[in-house]
TrEMBL record, chain A:
Gene3D superfamilies: P-loop containing nucleotide triphosphate hydrolases. PANTHER family: ABC TRANSPORTER G FAMILY MEMBER 20 ISOFORM X1, ATP-BINDING CASSETTE, SUB-FAMILY H, MEMBER 1. Residues 8-235 form the ABC transporter domain. CDD domains: ABC_DR_subfamily_A. GO terms for molecular function: ATP binding; ATP hydrolysis activity. This is ABC-2 type transport system ATP-binding protein. It comes from Formivibrio citricus. InterPro entries: AAA+_ATPase (IPR003593), ABC_transporter-like_ATP-bd (IPR003439), ABC_transporter-like_CS (IPR017871), P-loop_NTPase (IPR027417). Pfam families: ABC_tran (PF00005).
Automatic annotation (TrEMBL), chain B:
Residues 146-375 form the ABC transmembrane type-2 domain. One of its GO terms (molecular function) is ABC-type transporter activity. Keywords: Cell membrane, Membrane, Transmembrane, Transmembrane helix, Transport. This is ABC-2 type transport system permease protein. It is found in: Cell membrane.
Length: 313, 377
C-alpha cells in the first residue's frame, strides 16, 4: 500500500483510436472517500478514460497515479486494489451466481473463500437463488451481482462504468443508496453516467465531451464558476418565444422543461439585453434562477462541439 | 509483475470445465465430430464393393483366356463390361473412370503356359479410391493361384507346376502410394485433432472477448499466461479423449494393426495437439469475434485436410501443392502416426517429421504470445 493524496490523479491523458483523439489531454483528480460523478454524452470517452485509470489501456500520452500506483508501470498493483465494474454485464452468464462469486474469489486468491461468498450472497439477498445461472437474472439484479462481485476483494477504489444504464428507476435509487453507503465506509467511488439527475447525487463532478474534460468541481462550484446565468420563464406563448429568442445574441441556450423555458447565456449583460423586450410581455412570468446542471452541461457540450469543429478546420 | 499462480490457473481450469459441461453444443462438437467421422469413414473402410466394372484386353483367343474371364466374373468382384477392347481403348476407359480395372491377357499367355513357363496377367487398377479396389485386388491375387488348376487337369496335368502358373502383375494407377484402408485411421486422428483443437481454443478465447468477460478478467490480477494455459488444459484433455476413442475404435471395430509403440505415439499426439492449440490461440488473437475465428479456423483446416495426404495421396499431388503440404502440421503428423502405427517406426525414424512440427509450433507460438492481448489496446 502506497501513501497517496488523491485516489485518482491523472494529467494530460491522451488516447487515440485510428488517428482519432478519443481522450484528449485529460487532467482529473478524484479525492479520497468521495463519490465522483464522471459525466458526458455517449461516445465522449468515459469508458476509455476509466480503462486507462485501471491499467486496461495504455495511454498514448500523459501520466497518472491510481491509489498512488503509476498507471503505466504498476497496473498489476492497481488491479489488485481497484474494483472495476464494466459498462456491459461481464460476469459469466453460463455460471451460477455462486460460481461467479467463487471464481472471482479464487482469482483474487482470497482466504476464507466460502465465508466471503456466503456473506456476499446473504448481503445481496440472493442466497436462496445462488444456484441459478447468472444469465437468467433481470437487469437490476445483474447490476447488483456485478457490484457485489467487484466488491468481493475489498477494493479501496470502485470504478463503475454506467452502472445504472438500462435499470429501472427504483433499482437506480437503491443502487445509489448502496454507493453512498460504500462511500461512507471509506471507499472512493467514481461513477460514470450520462443521466443528468445522477449528477446531483455526487460530491464532485467531471464533465467530458468529445474527449475533453470541460469542467470539474462540486455541483455548486461548477454553476458558480461557469459565469452562466439562466432565466426561467413560464406562461402562454412560450413556444413562439423560444423560437424568437433562439438566434438572439447573448442567448446561448434555450431549453424547454415542461411548461417552463430556460434561457441561458454566458454573459449576464448580453442575456438581459436580449430578453428585455419580452420581460413585460403579458402572460409571461420571469424569474432569474440558478442555472441547473443540465443547462450547464448542455452549454458545455455545445461549447465543446464548437471547439471540436473549429479545431478540425 | 505478478508471478504465475497455480491457484488462479486452477480457478480458470475449473471454470472452463463447468462451462464445457453446460455448453452442450460445443461439448457435442468435441466428442461428436470424432465419433461421427469415425463412423462415416468406418463405413468406407468396411465397404466391400463388388461388381466393379472391368475391361479385359485379350491378345489371344484361347480356352485359357476364356477361363480367366469366366473366373473373374465368377468371383463377384468384377463385372466384365467388355472383352473386345484394345490397349488404347482400355486406357481411355480407365482414365475416364468408366472402368475400375483393366485386365490384359498377353499374346503369349497360352504359349507360355503350355511350355510350362509362368504366364503373366496384367491387372491395372484405378486406385484413386483404394478402399474400393483393395478387396477386389486381394480376391484376384488369391485366385491366380488356382486360376487354371481346372484347365490343367487330365492330359495337361503334367503342366501344372509346383508354383502358381500365372504371375499377376498389378499396376495401381493414380495412387503410387497404394494408400490402403489402414491409412485412414491414423490420418483421421490427425484430422479430428486439427479441427477440434483449433476450433475449441480459437472460439473459447474469442468468446470471452465477444461477451465482454475478457475485460473483466483482464481487470483482475490474472496473468495472461494463466488465462491461456487455463483454456488449453481442458482442450488437451478432450484431445486425448478423442485420440483414445479413435485408437480404440480402430483396434476393436476395424482391426487396424498397431505395430508401433503406443507411448511414442501419445507423445507425438501431445506435440501435435500443442501445435494446433497454438494455432488456435494465434487465431483468437487476430479474430475480433467468434464468427471470424470460425472462418479462420476453416481457412486453416481445409488446406490441412486436402493437402496433407489425407484426402489425396501426397505423392500424387502437383509439386506446388506438395510444397504447401510440407508446411502444414497435419502432413507431418500423418506421417508420424502412420509410421508408428503401421510400420512400427521408432523415435529416430519419426524425427524427420517431428522436428518440422516442433519448428512450426515454436514459430506460431512466438507470434501468438506477442499478439495475445494483456490489455485491451
Ligand atoms: N477499441 C476501440 N477501437 C476504436 N475505437 C474505439 C475503441 N474504444 C472506443 N472507441 C471509440 O472511442 C469513442 C469513445 O468511446 P467510449 O470511451 O466508449 O465513450 P463513452 O464511454 O463515453 O460512451 C467512441 O467514438 C468509440 O467508438
Ligand atoms: Mg462507455
Amino acid at each position: 500500500m502506497k501513501p497517496f493524496e488523491h485516489a485518482v490523479d491523472v494529467t494530460g491523458l491522451c488516447k487515440r483510436f485510428d488517428g482519432k483523439a478519443v481522450v484528449d489531454n485529460l487532467t482529473m483528480q478524484v479525492r479520497r472517500g468521495e463519490v465522483f460523478g464522471f459525466l458526458g454524452p455517449n461516445g465522449s470517452g468515459k469508458t476509455t478514460t476509466i480503462r486507462m485509470m485501471c491499467g486496461l489501456l495504455t495511454p498514448d500520452g500523459g501520466a497518472g497515479h491510481t491509489l498512488g500506483y503509476d498507471i503505466l508501470r504498476e497496473s498489476w498493483a492497481i488491479k489488485r486494489e481497484v474494483g472495476y465494474m464494466t459498462q456491459r454485464f461481464s460476469l459469466y452468464e453460463d455460471l451460477t451466481i455462486r460460481e461467479n462469486l467463487d471464481f472471482v474469489a479464487r482469482i483474487y486468491q482470497m482466504d476464507r473463500r466460502k465465508n466471503r461468498v456466503d456473506a456476499s450472497l446473504e448481503q445481496l439477498g440472493l442466497a436462496d437463488r445462488q444456484n441459478q445461472l447468472a444469465g437468467s437474472l433481470s437487469g437490476g439484479w445483474k447490476q447488483r451481482l456485478a457490484l457485489a462481485s467487484c466488491m468481493l476483494h475489498e477494493p479501496r477504489l470502485l470504478l463503475l462504468d454506467e452502472p445504472t444504464a438500462g435499470v429501472d428507476p427504483k433499482a437506480r435509487r437503491d443502487f445509489w443508496e448502496e454507493i453512498h453507503k460504500l462511500a461512507a465506509s471509506g471507499i472512493t467511488v467514481l461513477v460514470s453516467t450520462h443521466y443528468m439527475d445522477e449528477a446531483e447525487r455526487c460530491h464532485r463532478l467531471g464533465y467530458i465531451a468529445y474527449g475533453k474534460l470541460m469542467a470539474q468541481g462540486t455541483p455548486r462550484e461548477l454553476v458558480a464558476n461557469s459565469g452562466f446565468s439562466t432565466w426561467h420563464v413560464a406562461g402562454e406563448g412560450i413556444n413562439e418565444l423560444a423560437e424568437r429568442l433562439q438566434d438572439k445574441t447573448g442567448v446561448d441556450r434555450v431549453t424547454r422543461f415542461g411548461h417552463e423555458l430556460h434561457v441561458s447565456g454566458g454573459d449576464v449583460e448580453a442575456l438581459n439585453q436580449a430578453i428585455e423586450p419580452y420581460l413585460s410581455a403579458p402572460g409571461l412570468t420571469w424569474e432569474f434562477g440558478e442555472p441547473q446542471l443540465e443547462d450547464l452541461f448542455i452549454h458545455l457540450m455545445g461549447k465543446a462541439r464548437d471547439n471540436f469543429a473549429g479545431g478540425g478546420q | 509483475m505478478t508471478s504465475f499462480s497455480l491457484e488462479r490457473l486452477f480457478a480458470i481450469i475449473r471454470k472452463e470445465f463447468i462451462q464445457m459441461r453446460r455448453d452442450r453444443l460445443t461439448f457435442a462438437m468435441m466428442v461428436g465430430i470424432p465419433l461421427m467421422q469415425l463412423v462415416l469413414f468406418g463405413f468406407a473402410i468396411n465397404g466391400d464393393p463388388k461388381h466393379l466394372p472391368t475391361v479385359i484386353v485379350t491378345h489371344e483367343q484361347s480356352p485359357f483366356a476364356r477361363s480367366v474371364v469366366q473366373k473373374l466374373a465368377n468371383s463377384g468382384y468384377f463385372n466384365v463390361v467388355s472383352t473386345q477392347a484394345g490397349d488404347r481403348e482400355a486406357q481411355e476407359m480407365l482414365a475416364l473412370g468408366q472402368v475400375q480395372f483393366a485386365v490384359t491377357i498377353p499374346a503369349d499367355f497360352s504359349w507360355r503356359l503350355l511350355r510350362g513357363e509362368r504366364a503373366q496377367l496384367l491387372l491395372e487398377a484405378d486406385a484413386t479410391d483404394p478402399s474400393a479396389t483393395g478387396n477386389a485386388i486381394a480376391a484376384i491375387q488369391q485366385m491366380t493361384g488356382s486360376l487354371l488348376d481346372h484347365d490343367l487337369k487330365g492330359a495337361l496335368a503334367w503342366l501344372s507346376p509346383a508354383q502358381p502358373a500365372v504371375e499377376l502383375v498389378i499396376h495401381r494407377r493414380y495412387n503410387p502410394e497404394g494408400l490402403s484402408q489402414y491409412n485412414i485411421v491414423p490420418g483421421l486422428m490427425g484430422v479430428v485433432l486439427t479441427m477440434t483443437m483449433i476450433m475449441s481454443t480459437a472460439l473459447g478465447l474469442t468468446r470471452e472477448v465477444e461477451r465482454g468477460t475478457m475485460e473483466n478478467l483482464l481487470a483482475t490480477p490474472v496473468h495472461p499466461l494463466e488465462v491461456m494455459v487455463g483454456k488449453i488444459v481442458p482442450c488437451i484433455l478432450v484431445g486425448l479423449i478423442s485420440t483414445v476413442l479413435i485408437l480404440t475404435a480402430a483396434k476393436w471395430l476395424f482391426a487396424v494393426p498397431f505395430v508401433g509403440n503406443v507411448a511414442l505415439l501419445i507423445c507425438a499426439v501431445l506435440v501435435f495437439i500443442a501445435t494446433n492449440l497454438v494455432v488456435g490461440i494465434t487465431i483468437s488473437s487476430v479474430a475480433r469475434n467468434q464468427m471470424q475465428a470460425l472462418q479462420m479456423s476453416f481457412f486453416f483446416f481445409l488446406p490441412s485436410m486436402l493437402l496433407s495426404g489425407f484426402m489425396f495421396p501426397f505423392r500424387g499431388m502437383p509439386q506446388w501443392a506438395q510444397y504447401i503440404g510440407e508446411i502444414l502440421p497435419l502432413t507431418h503428423f500423418m506421417r508420424i502416426s502412420r509410421g508408428v502405427m503401421l510400420k512400427g517406426n521408432n523415435l529416430l525414424e519419426i524425427w524427420p517429421s517431428l522436428w518440422p512440427l516442433l519448428l512450426f509450433m515454436t514459430v506460431i507460438m512466438a507470434i501468438g504470445l506477442k499478439r495475445f492481448r494483456r490489455t485491451l489496446d
